[in-house]
Amino acid sequence: MLTMEKPAQTRDDLIDALLLKAEVDAFNARYCAALDSQRLADWAALFTEDAFYTIISRENHDRGLPVGLIYCENGGMIRDRAFALEKTAMFAPRYLRHMVSNLSVREAADGSFTANADYVVFQVLFDRPAATIHQVGRYDDVFVRTPSGLRLKSRTCIYDSLLVDNALCIPV
Amino acid sequence: MAWQRVAALESLRDSGVVGVELEATPIALYRFGAEVFATHGICTHALAFLKDGWVEDGTIECPLHQGVFDIRTGRALCAPLTRDLATYAVKVEGGDVYVDLEISGIHPNSAAECPAAGAHSEGASAALPLVIIGAGQAAAAAIRAARAAGFAAPIHLVGEERHAPYERPPLSKAALAEGFDAASCMRLSPADAQALGVTLHLGVRATAIDPVARTVTLSDGAALAYGALLLATGGRARRLTAPGGDLPGVHYLRTLEDAQAIAMALKGAGRVAVIGGGFIGLELASAAVARGAEVVLLEREPELMARLLPAPLGAVFRQVAERAGVSIRRDTAVTGITQEAAHLTIATSAGPVMADVVLVGVGLEPETALAEAAGCAVDGGIVVDGEARTSVEGIWAAGDCALHATPLRGRARRLESWQNAEEQGAAAGRSIAGVAGAAEAKAPWFWSDQFGFNIQMLGITAPDDAVVVSGPDAAAGAVYRTLDPQSGRVTAVLAVDDPAAIRAARAELDAEAPFDGAAHDARPVTLDAACDDENSDAISEDDDMSADPAAQFAKTYAWPKDGLSIIPDWVYTDETIYQREVERIFHGRTWNFVALECEVENPGDFIRSNVGPTPVVVSRAEDGTIHVFENRCAHRAAEFCRELSGTAKEFVCPYHQWSYDLKGNLVGVPFRRGVDGKGGMPKDFKPAEHGLRQLKVETHRGVVFASYAEDMEPLADYLGPEVMHEFETTFDGRKPKLLGHYRHSLPGNWKLYHENLKDPYHATLLHTFLVTFGLLVAGNKSLMLADPSGRHGVMASAKSEAGNVDEDKKKEMRAYKEGMSLEEPRFMNFIDEFDSPWSVTMATIWPNLIVQREMNTLGIRHIIPNGPNEFVMKWTMFGFEGDDEEMTRHRLRQGNLMGPAGFLGLEDNEAIKFVQDGMLRVTDGEHLVKLDPETEAGTADTLISEAAIRAMYKHWRDVMGIA
Ligand SMILES: Cc1cc2nc3c(=O)[nH]c(=O)nc-3n(C[C@H](O)[C@H](O)[C@H](O)COP(=O)(O)OP(=O)(O)OC[C@H]3O[C@@H](n4cnc5c(N)ncnc54)[C@H](O)[C@@H]3O)c2cc1C
Ligand code: FES
Ligand SMILES: [Fe+2]
What we know:
Chain A has 172 residues and is of the alpha+beta class. Chain A has helices at 2-5, 11-36, 40-44, 58-62, 75-87; strands at residues 47-57, 70-72, 94-107, 113-125, 132-146, 149-159, 163-165. The longest helix of chain B has 16 residues, at 715-730.
């Protein structure tokens, strides 16, 4: 928790920290909603132009190996990803549900801030009875404030579930 | 613009097609003797190159969905085409062929060129208009033909539906699935109608005809005077006469609105009952199954389509439906339907049937009342001659409402088909325009799409015809011929997923001689044979327990008679087969990939790996040698090494602390001598004899292979020179550097992955991404190599410079959409770092390795089977020592193409899953690998080939002992 990492000095500090956390929470809710309704262009719009986005296994991450399931070095590549998945990719229809919790936020001097949160992605295929846990992992984020609100300057999704179930068709 | 030379006449094959490019426009050139024609090179339906199509009788058949265009006029002749093809003027001079892109080809029959009413109304004002009743497909065909033949008077089209003419075949097919766009089945759009000088009266019914005064009265009170009248009224879906036939939840299908209502009803319908087992009933059942419903089909007769087809053929349709999960009740007549809450109960002669939705397909009632009232001869359909004239002066009729001009097989009939509406409509149009003469008689043709099969039928059969089959029975590739019982001549040909057979059938239908069964490898289909589909010799003879197991195996797993081009499903789904694969292939005489050397860089480094399903440890010993041994304790079989990778001095099984050195030798057994002289291992226990099972190892260019065969031949001999060459092109001596792994499980048989990479046919078809961004076009240089043994292969292609499709061409290719280009252009750069003509190679190295060189993203794909129905794929992505940071990033960027989330990779995974699903849900099925029969098995010189897959199965059968 935020307050445990860096005890707030005053009541105002505490309120600021809570407000910031609420803001990131709201951002993540928007982010998840865009993915869950498969509006990938809206998802892509939540990143800055110079953003970095990757989904990397905990195995690779812990060993300092850079390979990711998805690897985008800038906003253009993120939009390419969104566009290609929406317009060209063939995969069985599915529903996804992204859940985010255990958020912690640390503000940096330059106004940007880093955040961490855990995520779970459930997947439902139309011919299977159960929602399966498609991915479990942790977001490692850098946010910046822009005129249109918070934006991700970097999101590294580090997944624990090393063995991906067949294919990962929608970002996490 | 001017004439431009495109080719030498010499270079064009007579009656053939070639593709050329002119100002970035792809063009198809066709030569007929000294004459040459040019059309646009891309099909108007989807992205397919016509140069790969089939030329016949002045038409070109698209390679993708068999749409057919008239070469001279560009006219779209059949579904699924709805738009004509552009044609270009051509001249041949001094042995050279010139094309002018700005002038369209000379096509006297083309609608676009014909005098539209506006332009000619003055001259033609004396002529009385053509009035057409019924705005369906026959009407559309008549309008186009009349205009093309120079008919200049006004045309009035009266249609009861609110739509301009559209096609009905999709209504029972695509329209019932998600995402259907009604615009795609337009036959004559309002814009076309306007261009052709047609006044539309839509949503209006014609109520009376006065054949003497030559007027038609409309339901809105208007009257239209006509010079010529065409009845193209089609028909209505026959209603159930039993009570309850009009309850909500009981659906009939004829119009777009009907189809939309059915599509809605099928969403979330649990149980669906289909009444009537004709083509439409079966297609409805197929759509309902596809929507996940439980489907029962009720048929009054003893067999499906008993009055149309010989019973053995009806049985074929039934088996196909039953295998897809439809429960079919024959001899079951519906006596009434009742409703309770949302449930419908159908009372039948064989007891009640419950359903949420009832779909009725019990035939068509032709709309002939107006014709009869006008005095036209009607005999189950409006009687017409070869020019579609009725018995009343000034009135023509065409389509579903009219009879065929001549009796077919001794009976006057209506042909309720797309082709008939098209041809009879066109005949009427020409006749009305004053062009005499009946069109040449074409054999009736019909198609149906159901349960994933495309079924086409040419000719007219009768219930008492004999039936023979070539190829498999009731499966893709089956070709049925029906024979006249007296003369033995072919009366009709019905082909399952085999349009080529229908093409060939034209000649067979014309032949005078009786059918030569032997020449076609045809065998009779009798009702008995068809009835016990659940035959399977395997099962019936299984109970003979005393039989010798080898003989038993041979009997159970007999390859289909058809040889290499059919693969039975049990190859992919059977547990016994899988066990034998582990024993004979993965644990047999093969080299299996286990690791990159750089993953066990230093003494003590180890990684977990697998040979086939069997877990192994790859470790580097103190002396620098690499060892591979089973990850299974010699004591109680515990899989002792659990870390994915690490560094160790020894391996200790946690259960009883048996310890092994880095080569897999047993070094310590706790309490080996017991305690206080009691217990412990037998005196003669020799640790040296109880090490871990060690495999033979060979490394080459930084790649580690292992084999269970102690006397395994060297890797170079195993790969052979061609495959070794490709291997050494990728592993070119630079030291591989590990970039990371992906791991994923695939719910499919492991061999499907090899097949995916021995199947160059799928690349442009499945991977829209490649085509969309112009990365792979059918014209790219490529190769599908199979080594002489058939087990290894290399799929290779070269990124052509012209692969960067320019803007003009993008517009032409219909897969391109506005704004479809990559924002990150570097993503697709190819840095030419290898000494190779190929920018992409996929080497399939039997049995568990794929070496991916996708431009600059390099990877090992390691197959780990896990039973017949699942495997794990472990990817080891690498670069080379010496790559700078930008090169590493480039490899990572390009890595977006492949892997479980790769633009291409995810599609292959899904496709493999679909194939396994398809097999698991049908018993005793089989697959087709027939493409490119010219190469029986081996390296193919075309991408439209499955010869490498056939080669692999030749080898597989050999090793597996399956004759
Ligand atoms: C669901 C379905 C699937 C099919 N699938 C296939 C297939 O796979 N392959 C194949 O070859 N064929 C197929 N067919 C058959 C093919 O579509 C028909 O043969 C073809 O549509 C006949 O065209 P038509 O112009 O004669 O009649 P229609 O297309 O039926 O047009 C007749 C029109 O006339 C109108 N009309 C009737 N009376 C009046 C009046 N008094 N005043 C004004 N308007 C009137 C009707 O409303 C209708 O719009 C299918 C048909 C259906 C319904
Ligand atoms: S028929 Fe040509 S692309 Fe479909
Ligand atoms: Fe592929």
